Amino acid sequence: MGIGRSVLRDSVMVLCCAAGGAAAVFPGADWEPARPAADGFQAERVQAAASWLSAALHDWGGAGTLFIVRHGRVVWAGPQCAAEHAIFSATKSFTSTCFGLLIEDGKASLSTLARDHQPALAAQYPDVTLRHFATMTSGYDAATVHYETDAAGRGDSWIPDPPAAPLFAPGTRFRYWDEAMMQFGNILARLAGEPLDLLFKRRVADRIGMTRWRWDAGQWTGGIHTSSRELARFGHLFLNRGNWHGGQLVPAAWVDEATAVQVPTTIPNDDLPRSRGSGIYGYNWWVNGLKPDGTRLWPDAPPRAYYANGLHSNVCIVVPEWGVVVTRTNGGRPDGSANTPADIDRIWSAFLGQLGSAFAQS
Fold first, then answer.
1. DSSP single-letter state for residue 152
2. Residues in contact with 304: Cβ distance below 8 Å, sequence separation at least 6, in sequence order
3. Distance CA 250, CA 145 (A)
4. Would you say residue 332 lies in a domain?
């Protein structure tokens, strides 16, 4: 990425408006630094928010990789923001993006039946569509058990085959289940005629200058390694509704749909703690929507915020109301323990509430 090169020389500007009415700036080899007074934010409040987050995440790796971009300019860059980590389930949002590209190409649709492209699903999953997979409502389960079993002893893994009996009828419940996501990625790769990492590289990564990353092609959805600094390019693409320096790389309509609530509260959550998508899940993106109890996921953040989320608080947060992208990558604790969904929701909500005060006068 050429970190040592001049960020001013390598940045480019396009005459369009990003969220918040500012001209959208797109990085070249590196990002352009923001100027607090000219770009309308209070640097001391950003620093205070970052310090608070570092303390809140102290037991889970801190905030040294925190990276914040507003309208395409760097507001905050933690000292480890270029360090590469596995981003775990934040990869799911990349898989969703590949799905949107295949829909644009006419190779798939939301109503495409999975069985038509993976015959092994025909007997037990005849009615499961790609939309069911993208919303974690497919009920798909595989026979292998590696981790997190439910009360009935059904366990998850990163191995999508062979199929087991359905967990529930498609579209009737939300279960955050990696086996289903792996099978989804498998089917998308069949539709693409190539591994998803190659599709994403050619259509998106190369075009946005995302060069320091890898996606383990044999693990269809769980394998991206990258840094916060690189991940922010993906978030900035979505902030600009799939447009990069005047080129529409991902259909704007897909960005809008994928980052809107697609799992209504009428679809209940299943019985696992991480299965909490009712009212707050789009097409493999988490959305700051209203949960079944009527409360917002992140009450201190703007309602249009959405994010890619992975184990150990690997996040790519997009806040259209502010024109902001927040990324944080992390390898996790040595003992492998992770913060719970409730913990991390509280932390990110409070952090964004503090961060928003830095933009209050802009």
1. T
2. 288, 319, 320, 321
3. 35
4. yes
State how many domains the chain has: 2
Does 73 reside within a domain? yes
The whole-angstrom separation of Cα 221 and Cα 348 is 24
Same domain for 334 and 246, yes or no, is: yes
Q: Which amino acid, one-letter code, is at 221?
A: T
E strands, 71-125, in order: 73-77, 85-86
Show the domain range for 163. 96-189
Task: Residue 126: count other Cβ atoms within 10 Å of its Cβ.
Answer: 11
Residue 227's Cα: distance from chain center in Å? 14
* Calpha distance 288→197 (Å, rounded): 28
CB 31 within 8 A of CB 7: yes
Cα angle 112, 114, 116; round to 5: 85
| Chain mean position to CA 221 | 12
CATH number for position 350: 3.40.710.10
Q: What is the 3-state secondary structure (H, E, C) of 181-228?
A: HHHHHHHHHHHHCCCHHHHHHHHHHHHHCCCCEEECCCCCCCCEEECH
Query: How many Å apart are CA 222 and CA 24, to the nearest integer?
Result: 31
For residue range 279-305, list pLDDT tens digits in order: 999 999 999 999 999 999 999 999 999
Note whether 280 and 140 are same-domain residues.
no
Do 166 and 141 lie in a common domain? yes
Q: Residue 287 has what DSSP assignment?
A: E
Q: What is the pLDDT of residues 181-205, one digit of tens each?
A: 999 999 999 999 999 999 999 999 9
For residue 348, give the amino acid letter: W
- 280 and 304 in a single domain? The answer is yes
Helix, strand, or coil here: 180? helix
Nearest to 224 by CA among 249, 207, 204: 204
pTM above 0.90, yes or no: yes
The kind and range of the H/E element at 254 are helix 252-258
The strand pair at 32-33 and 23-26 is best described as unpaired
